Every structure is written in C-alpha cells, then in structure tokens.
Amino acid sequence: MAKKKKEKIIYVDDGRTVADMSGVTGTRLSRDAWRSKSTAKEKWQTYWDAVKRMFGPMMAVICGICIIYMILYFVFLFMY
User: Fold this and answer.
1) What is the DSSP string of 13-75?
2) What one-character DSSP code corresponds to residue 5?
3) Could you tell me which residue, 10 or 68, shows the higher pLDDT?
4) Of residues 51 and 15, which shows the higher confidence score?
C-alpha cells in the first residue's frame, strides 16, 4: 500500500497584521471618547430592567435546586 502524500500548505504574507486596526479612528487620550452619553437615571433604569428580567429565571433555578436537594435528601434518608 502506498502512503498518501500530505498536502503541503503554503502561507502567503499579504502584509496585514493579525488584528487589522485600520478602521479605528480618534485618539484614546481624549476624555470625551470614554464619557458615556447616558444619564445616571437612564443607567439606573437599565439596571432595574435587567434585574426584573432575571428575577423569574433566577427563582426557577433556585426552586429547581431546592426540589432536587429535597428529593436526594429523602432518597438517602430512607436508604439507611
């Protein structure tokens, strides 16, 4: 049986870097670039909206963990 030859990979350098930064504009040292456009009230409202959305799933997970714990507790309680 003849062995199959491995395909030789040829890499071509096109001069670009791995992280192409050509689309980045502006200076990072300016303070206005880091400043948020939203107010504190908008940020607070966004936070509470996120908390309200997470409350239901969080309670479902906590209840599920409690139910699994009770089932395992009673299983191991009656085994001994």
Assistant:
1) --S--SS--TT--S-TT-HHHHS-SS-HHHHHHHHHHHHHHHHHHHHHHHHHHHHHHHHHHHH
2) P
3) 68
4) 51
Residues 33/26, Cβ–Cβ less than 8 Å: yes
User: Has this prediction a pTM greater than 0.85?
Assistant: no
> Residue 70's closest CA among 55, 80, 78?
78
Phi, psi of 6 (to 5 degrees): -75, 140
Instruction: Give tens-digit pLDDT for 23-65.
Output: 666 665 555 556 678 888 999 999 999 999 999 999 999 999 9
| CA gap 62, 68 in Å, rounded | 10
Amino acid at 59: M
Question: Which residue is listed with tokens 């670009």?
Answer: 16
Task: Give the C-alpha separation, 12 to 1, whole Å.
Answer: 34
